[in-house]
TrEMBL record:
InterPro entries: 4OHPhenylPyrv_dOase (IPR005956), 4OHPhenylPyrv_dOase_C (IPR041735), 4OHPhenylPyrv_dOase_N (IPR041736), Glyas_Bleomycin-R_OHBP_Dase (IPR029068), VOC_core (IPR037523). This is 4-hydroxyphenylpyruvate dioxygenase. GO terms for biological process: L-tyrosine catabolic process. Keywords: Dioxygenase, Iron, Metal-binding, Oxidoreductase, Pyruvate, Repeat. It comes from Kitasatospora cheerisanensis KCTC 2395. GO terms for molecular function: 4-hydroxyphenylpyruvate dioxygenase activity; metal ion binding.
Amino acid sequence: MSIQTITHVEYHCADAARTAGELQTGFGFRRDAEQPAWKPGVQAVHLRQGTIQLRLKSSEFGDHPVARWVERHGEGVAVLALGCTDPRAALERAERHGAEVLDRDGALIAGFGDTALRLVPLPDDAPQPAGGELLDALDHVAICVPAGQLAAAVLFCEAALGMHRIFGEYIAVGEQAMDSSVVQSPSGDVTFTLIEPDTGRRAGQIDTFLADHGGAGVQHLALRTEDIATAVRTARSRGVEFLATPGAYYDGLAERLGDTAIPVETLRELDVLVDQDHGGQLFQIFARSTHPRRTFFLELIERQGAGTFGTANIKALYEAVERQRASV
């Protein structure tokens, strides 16, 4: 009955066709060969790349559930579909541990704010990469929760979903601070980074997200690539904007980390960040949010042996988003 993977992400937006076009042009997603049936007033577009599957939906009807979701939260992740060996048993476990069942027939439970979790069977045939793609898989999902709710969110993931806490860190950046925990499925293929603000410090980007999004929700999706340099160059050439990194960050890399698998000159050129753990190094960069509320964005990440989340990673994300807020 255990959760094995994220089979797809359901994304609600104002114009599914337009958003799909942006993801196709900028990041190389392609339309799924089997598109959903057209319904009057409702757009649905399914995209895939590597093992990543995105299901975009919008509605021109103001009273449609998708339109109401977008009105409350802006564009963003409405549902995470979790592939289970036994969805019914997974639903029963979640309910025993206090999960609110939103749709029993659809195995849909409340997750984080209005971001729900759908418990689905594992696909008979796993998605196969088409070759020559920029992105390979969904690495992790970053979720912001209101102050004081982090511990409860971790407990929910452990008790109701069978996940395990693998990392936690309190991060202070200037006068702002946040607390975080990373939970992961036993398979290692479902990873949530849970973040709450420290309201005893000056309000920062997590507070802003919670206010503008209207409560807990997904701040970003991290998409894994085997070649981040090529992915960034290609996406940038297609119009995708990434957050800049101060040059001083790269001046101290050699002293902090020693040799890096990607030359420092290349990292500096592309604004790519690097961190390492006992297993190796990882490289990441954050795309500039294109949404009016600045409440959702994408991250690109390449892992070369690294399997955990170091302090520098989370701090780098926090600082990068602060730079975007300051430049708006």
